[in-house]
Amino acid sequence: MKIDLTETTSSKINAALVQARRDIGTPAIGMVLTLVIVTDEENAYDALKSANEASHEHPSRIVVVIKRVSRSPRSRRDARLDAEVRVGADAGTGETVVLRLHGELVHHAQSVVLPLLLPDAPVVVWWPDGAPSDLAGDPLGALGQRRITDTYACENPLRALGERAAAYAPGDTDLSWTRITPWRSMLAAALDQQALKVTSAAVEGEDENPSCELLAMWLADRLQVPVKRTHSQGPGLTSVRLETKDGDIVLDRADGSLATLCMPGQPDRAVALKRRDTAELLAEELRRLDPDNTYEASLKFGVAKLAAEAPAPAPAKASDSPETVTGPKADAAKPAAKPTKKAPAK
């Protein structure tokens, strides 16, 4: 069932939700949380589709906040709220409210969303794209116990990771971190099978891929070893190599679906490691509502501490200036000074 409301208010939306539940014969509320999606018209359809699929595992009230940009000064002064209420088969296993905010109301979205939250239920805020730098300081982000972003959708993912680390607050998380959960589980299980001391590591994947950077920072933080970040054509994360004295542990995924795990003294084995869609990632994040301390530690480790793959140095030319050397070798390389003649005493 769909109900369109034009120039409405939050109280009228709540009344429409109650009436719609009665009309379809389900007056009771069986939802476990409120999921607030902050997006634009371009990405609203895909985000809502993923949320509806995730609601089969987590029945929830989905509130989609779409801020409409006004073109003229007069329309920017006028405040208007349009809404679409979906209940039943059109809203997954919960209910959906699509809010379109116009004019001055764009700057006060939290006042519209607050009356629509389920009472005594957790609130999760998700930005599929265009997330603010300070999630907890955002008026809508302050309503949620969990705040989900996706740095993969940012124009500059590495800069976005730095912003997330600088303004991190308990409850923040990112779908780029969720994407590497199977990789982290597989690598941790491999190290549990054999008590090997890792001396260094290398993570290979697409350039400017935040999931690759987060996995490299996780390895560097947990293993306390140098981690080299190398680049490939993808798709996504392609290979992780853990170097030990007894041989290398390699988890390689070239096609984005099936990976090969190589361990010292054991035959190579094929493992399923497919790339998951947004609905699966969102469902995983909705399973936990407590702060993710492991994500916090990995995020704050910093991309700058990773060893990036550097190009080979160019050969020196005859016109180049000689290399400057410091330390004991420099003293040995210096030509012996010629003795100076002393002036005869008078």
What does this protein look like?
- Strand 13 (258-262) and strand 14 (269-272) form a beta hairpin.
- 32% of the residues are buried.
- The protein has helices at residues 10-24, 41-54, 73-77, 109-113, 157-166, 175-178, 181-193, 210-223, 278-285, 293-301, 328-333; strands at 2-5, 33-39, 60-67, 80-87, 95-102, 123-126, 146-149, 172-174, 198-205, 227-231, 237-244, 247-252, 258-262, 269-272, 307-308.
- Residues 310-346 have low confidence and may be disordered.
- The chain has 346 residues and is of the alpha/beta class.
Record the SSE blueprint.
Layout: E1 2-5, H1 10-24, E2 33-39, H2 41-54, E3 60-67, H3 73-77, E4 80-87, E5 95-102, H4 109-113, E6 123-126, E7 146-149, H5 157-166, E8 172-174, H6 175-178, H7 181-193, E9 198-205, H8 210-223, E10 227-231, E11 237-244, E12 247-252, E13 258-262, E14 269-272, H9 278-285, H10 293-301, E15 307-308, H11 328-333
Parallel strand pairs: 2-3, 2-6, 3-5, 6-7, 7-8, 9-10, 10-15
Antiparallel strand pairs: 1-4, 4-5, 9-11, 11-12, 12-13, 13-14
Helix pairs in contact: 2-9, 8-10
Tally of extended strands? 15
What's the shape?
Answer: elongated
Query: Number of DSSP helices?
Result: 11
Q: Note poorly predicted spans.
A: 310-346
What is the structural class? alpha/beta
Strand order of the largest sheet: 1-4-5-3-2-6-7-8
Through-space gap between termini: 117 Å
- What is the average of the pLDDT values? 84
Largest sheet, in brief, is: 8 strands, mixed
Oligomer: single chain
Helix content: 25-40%
Strand residue content = 15-25%
Along the chain, the helix and strand elements come as: EHEHEHEEHEEHEHHEHEEEEEHHEH
Taking all Cα atoms into account, the compactness measure Rg is 28 Å
